[in-house]
Amino acid sequence: MTDRFDVLSAGSSEGGLAGAGSGVDVNAAKMIGIDIIIDCDAWLGAGFDLEALAASCARAVARQTPAPRGAQSGDVAILFTDDDKIRDLNHRFRQRDKATNVLSFPAGSDQADTGILGDIALGFETCASEAAAGPGMKAHTAHLLVHGILHLLGYDHEDDRDADEMEAMETQILAALGFKDPYANGEPLGADAEQLK
């Protein structure tokens, strides 16, 4: 199953991070095109519309997030897969032979030429296990999508300052979507959520 849709957002300083002293042109339009690929039937039984959730997350990120470290606009492919596939990706690209919840593959310098921000992959079984521990599947999936898109825009959590900034953005974006603070009860993403450079 593959769908493509664009999410267009005019920057706004109302309730968002853009414009809050960031030097970002809040009147600039940002567009994030989304391609959805579902190769694990378990995702279809998750109890919510994956396409609508991905579009909402992309729209919220585009509205509320300056992208000082990377591209403002571009296409994102989101693979909803199983733990076997994400384990293979994790092993091939990170040399870690284990499943994880989310992987982000930024396009890097190719973005300017291709208009592609990058790819995100989510592993169902790991996501479901983490979601059962607290946030629920829809809220946790939204968090992983926001987290992954932020990586594609150039944000990371390599040091404490960057991690604090990224967590604050995630919390604000998720609140705008109606979800609770994902960091209120520990580290819901797990220690293995990573961006591939």
Name its key features.
about 200 residues; alpha/beta; six-stranded mixed sheet; 7 helices; 6 strands; about 40% helix; about 20% strand; globular; disordered N terminus
Structural features, described:
This protein is globular. The protein starts with a strand and ends with a strand. By secondary structure, it is of the alpha/beta class. Helix content is 39%, strand content 21%. The chain is built from seven helices and six strands, in the order E-E-H-H-E-H-E-H-E-H-H-H-E. Strands 1-2-3-5-4-6 form a six-stranded mixed β-sheet, sandwiched between helices.
Average pLDDT works out at 80
- What can be said about the biggest beta sheet? 6 strands, mixed
Beta content comes to 15-25%
Task: Please work out how many helical segments DSSP would assign.
Answer: 7
Helix content: 25-40%
Strand order of the biggest β-sheet:
1-2-3-5-4-6
Structural class: alpha/beta
Count all strands and give the number.
Answer: 6
